[in-house]
């Protein structure tokens, strides 16, 4: 699932709301709050990670599917 999709953003917002709720009910130092905020942090880290990776071109995808293609061999060093 793309982190830019509406579904992912919706799930992230739900996770944040849940973490706030658990923190309010159990306390900021509770294990439950820590787990809830860890889930939020993992989701945010995935957003950051996916935005740092350069998008693959169609040529790159072609070379991954066809590693012995002559077009790709010309660029090997």
UniProtKB/TrEMBL annotation:
InterPro entries, per the entry: CP12_dom
Lineage top rank: taxon: Bacteria
Pfam families: CP12
Location of the region described as Disordered in the Swiss-Prot/TrEMBL record: 45-77
Chain ranges of the CP12 domain: 8-77
Protein name as annotated: CP12 domain-containing protein
Taxonomic classification: Bacteria, Bacillati, Cyanobacteriota, Cyanophyceae, Oculatellales
């Amino acid at each position: 699932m793309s982190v830019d999709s509406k579904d992912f953003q919706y799930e992230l917002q739900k996770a944040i709301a849940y973490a706030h709720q658990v923190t309010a009910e159990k306390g900021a130092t509770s294990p439950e709050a820590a787990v809830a905020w860890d889930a939020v942090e993992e989701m945010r880290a995935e957003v950051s990670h996916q935005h740092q990776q350069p998008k693959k071109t169609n040529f790159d995808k072609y070379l991954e599917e066809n590693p012995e293609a002559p077009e790709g061999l010309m660029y090997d060093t």
